[in-house]
Amino acid sequence: MKTKNLITTFAIATIVLIAGCSKDKDSPAPSTGGGGGYVNPTVIPLQTEVQATVDLQSAGGFAILAGSLISNVPTSAITGNVGLSPAAGSNITGFGANEIVGVVYTTDASGPAGSVPDAVGLTAAKGHLTTAYNDAAGRTSVDMVLLAGNIGGLTLTPGLYKSSGSLEISTGNLTFDAKGNSNAVFIIQIASTLNVETNRKVYLQGGALAENIFWQVGTSATLKSTAVFKGNILADQSISVNTGVAINGRLLARIAAVTLEGSTLTKP
């Protein structure tokens, strides 16, 4: 790993995080200047090392996969399969009729009406999630970018990003730009928590796809009310989604719970 590259890119990110955060905006279009508009987002330079995708294997078949609990405060709209293991199916709670367009898989027959017991398949999926989590956490690159604190106002180009603590999208929104390559992969390694504040948004441009964005979260993730989020969250512990959040991606929690309140989730 080239330390010089890390220092240079960290300096770029730090300037944005401390002094270059953009104001609210409803699209990723750049500011035209003047009149108190938001500042132009800072674009992270292209990395030379291309990252391969994180293979989710059978865990990729789920919109939600958790270990201890999946709870919901109606009304949510989930498009994709839902699975809970090793906890009993009775720990999937709060979903009304037609809130899940997909199959609910459980370890036993105590799940919601219409759920399908498949303990063997769920054990495999949780194992594949652990493999994928460890893969994402263990990636290295000669020119990965170090991030810290608030990453709102940044435009991330394809590659590997790393935080030794927590990350948040709190002041300004975040953009992923694939630079015309729809196969481009983005991996964000986070040692601690991920927090997306109320009404913060994640945008895709340049052909970027939510399925190719991987958020490896060392502890837990929280998406606050009316946030718009893109990508696959692979959390070691839990994922909490507040009211009115819209997600294009997956919520995959290795050990603990996924909790939702009146939100929309679509598996890419």
Structure, described:
By secondary structure, the protein is mainly beta. It has one domain. Helices cover 14% and strands 35% of the residues. It has 2 helices and 25 strands. Strands 2, 4, 5, 7, 8, 9, 10, 13, 16, 19, 21, 23 and 25 form a 13-stranded parallel beta sheet that branches. An 8-stranded parallel beta sheet has the order 6-3-24-22-20-17-14-11, with no helix packed on it. The longest helix has 20 residues. The radius of gyration is 18 Å and the shape is globular. The two termini are 33 Å apart.
What's this, in brief?
By secondary structure, the protein is mainly β. 14% of the residues lie in helices and 35% in strands.
Task: Write the H/E string, N to C.
Answer: HEEEEEEEEEHEEEEEEEEEEEEEEEE
- Total DSSP helices: 2
Number of strands: 25
Specify Rg, calculated over alpha carbons: 18 Å
Beta content: 35-45%
Q: What structural class do the secondary elements suggest?
A: mainly beta
Q: Main beta sheet: strand number and arrangement? A: 13 strands, parallel
Number of domains: 1
Task: List unreliable stretches of 5+ residues.
Answer: 1-27, 29-39
Q: What is the CA–CA distance across the termini?
A: 33 Å
User: What is the overall pLDDT average?
Assistant: 89
Binned, the helix content reads 10-25%
